[in-house]
Specification:
The structure is a single chain. By secondary structure, the chain is α/β, with parallel strands linked by helices. It contains five helices and six strands. It has a six-stranded mixed β-sheet with strand order 3-2-1-4-5-6, sandwiched between helices.
Length: 154
């Protein structure tokens, strides 16, 4: 398993949680961004810098990821692509996307986008909170623990 991070919009506190988890569990991780960002010096972590532009980082992640990889992203279309490739997608706020719910999330995202396009002010997402951080950390821990147990039973 490999962890991929859609790093441009990923909150710093989430990246720090990921850095610790990767080192603790010895799991490789790649951050993908359209500019150079800090990544701790570790043989388990690397950074891919892509050209600026809409969905360039998303396409890079989808092209490189393998089935059962975990992708950290708040981008619902990217999450849908990850699910289509038999990967796992986790939102920085702790929501796991799955075959059962990603279409619903995508429909709501497109609906809100249509509203904004017609001039309706919908507001942005709520401020990233401590409870969001905890929800992410808990979901990540549960997922990685389950994956590691399954890989040891194979």
């Amino acid at each position: 398993m490999h962890i991929w991070v859609d790093a441009d919009a990923c909150p710093k506190v989430i990246k720090e949680i990921l850095y610790r988890a990767v080192e603790r569990l010895n799991i490789p991780m790649t951050l993908v961004a359209n500019k150079k960002i800090f990544v701790p010096s570790s043989p388990l972590m690397d950074l891919i810098v892509v050209a600026a532009g809409a969905d360039v980082a998303d396409r890079e992640i989808v092209e490189r990821m393998q089935p059962d990889d975990l992708v950290i992203t708040a981008d619902i279309p990217l999450a849908a692509d990850v699910i289509d490739k038999a990967g796992h997608a986790l939102n920085p706020r702790g929501t796991f996307y799955s075959e059962a719910n990603v279409k619903q999330h995508l429909t709501m995202r497109n609906f809100m986008d249509d509203l904004r396009g017609s001039g309706v002010v919908t507001g942005g997402p709520p401020v990233f909170s401590n409870s969001d951080r905890m929800a992410f950390a808990n979901q990540l821990d549960r997922f990685l623990t389950k994956q590691l147990k399954e890989s040891q039973n194979v």
